[in-house]
Amino acid sequence: MSSSDLEEILNTRLFDAIKNKPNAVNSELALRGIQMTLNEIKQYNLNSADHDGKKFISALVLVKLEEEAPTGSSNINLFNYGIELIRLEPELKDLVTEVCDSILVSELSETINEVEALKWCIEGAKFKKASGKYLSGHDLGFVNITEILWTKSESLSINCNASELLTTLDFLLSAQRDANFDDLETLILTIGGIAINYIEDKNNLDGLGNENTQKDIQEAHRILDYLQQFKIDDADFRQEIAESRQKCIQIEPQIINIPNPMQFIDIPRDMNVDLSNIAIKYIPNLRFEITDQNIIYAYRWPNFQVSLHKAIYKNKVVTIKKYSEVANDSDIERINKEIKIYQVLSENRNFSNCFLEYFGTYLEQNGSINMVMEYQKETLALKINNMAAAQEGIARSETMIGTIFLTLITSFALMKNLGIIHGDIKPENFLVDENFNLKIIDFNISMVKNTDFINSAQQIPKSVGNVGFRAPELEDAFNEGLKQTNVNPEKSDVFSLGLVLLNFLTLEAVIGLNSTNKNPILMKKISELPIRWTQDLLKNMLQANPNNRTTFTQSLNFIPPSATPSIPR
């Protein structure tokens, strides 16, 4: 099997599926198809809901990529089309694997750039994981990469300098973690030993050398950060790393640096919203049919009942959030605040954030308040549970993860700059559709700047549901029986969102890891994530000390543009 077999399927079955669809993109693809160049095909951005179009263009990219290989590093991310095609057409798995393996072998046989070679190996590893298939190109990559690393090791043993050492450690770590090369223990012990000797000699950690040496403890911390991330069974080596770290801390604690800001989606500044000046948008009571049969969910606050119902509004499926048995003015004020938050966020919604569409509110004669908003049928909590039970997590691509992370964090950054703090971030408070578009819900305990707090907050939110996802400064205060504590509301939300993202990545329970004394366990779990930038991001979002934790806007700097190719930045 080869690209010619895939080309035959492309020109028959996949072509037939798109040729009669009234879509300008599909019409162009159907008209020119295989005659297009790879660069022309790359210009297309297909709607995520158009599965037939996605299958056609994914197959087309693979056919052209094999035809034009080797093409170099500019087309490395196109391997994702193979993963996508397998997801959409599982029966093509063997054929797509043959084509992708052929591409990988061609690229690795021709490249002389070590960074480019490693990038192709990483893409091969992602494809192997998604498909569960063997790739001979991945084995070829292992041979090439280990030869490069032994050459680097020999050079460092003769003349070790920090710049070359850090570059080599980064390369070696990426080979083990990102390219999924397992048989690297001898290389890790060799290069790791050189690194530890370098740290101890340069900084005189044993006190046996020259006290006047030019120490650089922060550089030593950076080197140890790499060493601690390697998966290795050698207990003596791990003990050496721990002892070196302790010696460095005694001289100078590590300083956490935030990356230089990148150019991201514009997030307006200083837009603190004044809810008192916002008039609630009311709509006529169209006699929506709200019955026990169409109820989605219900719960009770101390003085009123809340229920969510599925209904139809202007030919759209919507959710109606019904507040009933509302007895006093303070409860009405709380409800109105939540409605106004939904309304403000709806006015700011676009493709780059996760805000629900709000249609309006209507009142009933029995005193109930009914908010009409966009409908999504599934919570992220349920989605994660289903994925974990079915072992469906392996097919998630880096671009999918990057897009979800970027839109979520961008949303909370925008909320913060509007002066809105969610206060109850957990998987249950996100809705998700079949294409993994997420929406933020449930603002009933949210805080608004200059109304509920100024720059910090004292009152601990009384959110029972947030147990397991609240920040350590709140968790510790709860455990100590405190009713008030000084917190930075944004930094607390950053931690909660970081824990949700970790839950989504690992599909494993994270409840119980949100206290200060469990933070080392949390950091170890993060260090095992397969995508490097997600490690860097979550290590900064999930710092136990809120002073060391990034803000939402700072967190965006860890998501590389290559992980979100469909979002302009």
TrEMBL record:
Biological source species: Stentor coeruleus
Stretches assigned to the Protein kinase domain: 290-567
UniProt-recorded Gene Ontology molecular function terms: ATP binding; protein kinase activity
SMART domains: S_TKc (SM00220)
High-level lineage: Eukaryota, Sar, Alveolata, Ciliophora, Postciliodesmatophora
One Pfam family matching this protein: Pkinase
Domain of life per record: Eukaryota
Name this protein carries in UniProt: Protein kinase domain-containing protein
